[in-house]
Design a protein that fits this description.
Blueprint lengths: L7 H5 L4 E2 L16 E3 L20 E6 L4 H19 L3 E6 L2 H9 L5 E3 L2 H9 L4 E7 L5 E2 L1 E6 L14 E4 L5 H13 L4 H4 L2 E4 L3 H9 L5 E5 H10 L7 E6 L3 E2 L3 E3 L5 H12 L5 H10 L3 E3 L7 H11 L3
Parallel strand pairs: 3-4, 3-5, 9-10, 9-11
Antiparallel strand pairs: 2-4, 5-14, 6-14, 6-15, 7-13, 8-11, 8-12
């Protein structure tokens, strides 16, 4: 399995997207992912100013794609902005998979989460996730799944990957798994019947590198991560080829539990929408490589809902 990424500065770009941002996951042990409160020094995390001591913290859940400290460093400007706007402490809850983030939200251990489209529709169906806002990146609130192969691969179509070694990112990822599952279901196939072997890399940049380095014969990845990585390392373009692009999907959203206090939900929603108009908020957006947050459109996730229903047998 391809493991943790090599360059923290490079990886910061991908944090929102897979957890996104979102997104936007590593093979590290879950115990390596601490709960970090902004007014508490913990495990080498950068300490932010205390906010409203004695008030209950806002708990923000993120699926980390790099080390816990690097994740905190990237998200801390956002969390500090929220702490000021909401006048309360903020905790960052880091976990290694989307399923763990969903579980924190389902059980009320987290108030807000950054998840992918596949994880969102799963929680929505079970009535424990609700859209709050979405990031706008480069003027768009959509993205695609890309099926990649090595540049010299003989494959000319998705069907040519039969019997090959293929990389997924996360079991609940839309671009990193669900789209390919749906493509296979349309062919009356499953990953087990179609591919010779599958692996999970637990981040999209890991999957991209696995293809580029010939570790796998193909992978399905997030188009936003792919574009960002090639801008930083243009030499990778010569090692990769896009075999297939999916239709546009709704971008990985920010979500809450439907039962979250309505006043808090409204305040949090407005705080996200106002970020690009606030000096501190703009700094946080720069750290996340997000233009701004906008209100969500539930219909943008209809295609993901349809694919999940087909693959998971929902009625």
């Amino acid at each position: 399995m391809v493991r943790c990424t090599r360059n923290l500065r490079r990886s910061a770009i991908y944090l929102w997207i897979f957890a996104l941002v979102l997104l936007w996951l590593t093979a590290c042990n879950q115990s390596d992912y601490p709960t970090v409160q902004l007014n508490v020094e913990a495990r080498g995390a950068v300490v932010a100013a205390e906010r409203a001591p004695g008030k209950l913290p806002l708990r923000v859940a993120v699926a980390a794609v790099i080390s816990p400290k690097a994740t905190f460093d990237t998200y801390s400007p956002l969390l500090d902005y929220l702490a000021r706007r909401l006048d309360r402490p903020v905790e960052l809850l880091q976990r290694s998979t989307y399923a763990e983030i969903n579980e924190l939200l389902r059980t009320g251990q987290a108030d807000v989460g950054f998840v992918c489209g596949g994880a969102f529709v799963e929680g929505e169906r079970e009535q424990y996730l609700e859209l709050l806002a979405v990031p706008e990146i480069g003027g768009a609130t959509t993205y695609q799944a890309l099926i990649l192969v090595p540049a010299d691969s003989p494959a000319q179509s998705f069907a040519d990957l039969r019997g090959q070694r293929f990389a997924f990112t996360d079991p609940l990822s839309n671009s990193g798994r669900l789209y390919v599952q749906y493509r296979l279901a349309q062919m009356d196939e499953t990953p087990e019947s179609f591919f010779g072997e599958t692996i999970y890399t637990y981040s999209h940049d890991n999957s991209i590198r696995a293809v580029a380095e010939g570790i796998v014969d193909g992978a399905t990845v997030d188009s936003l991560v792919y574009g960002a990585l090639l801008k930083l390392e243009p030499g990778l373009a010569g090692q990769l080829r896009i075999l297939e692009r999916s239709p546009d999907f709704g971008i990985p959203p920010v979500v809450v539990h439907p039962d979250l206090d309505s006043d808090l939900k409204t305040t949090l929603h407005q705080a996200l929408l106002d970020m690009h108009q606030d000096p501190q908020g703009r700094e946080a957006l720069v750290a996340l490589y997000v233009t701004r947050f906008v209100s969500s459109n539930p219909a943008a996730y209809d295609d993901i809902r349809h694919m999940a229903a087909r693959v998971r047998g929902w009625r």
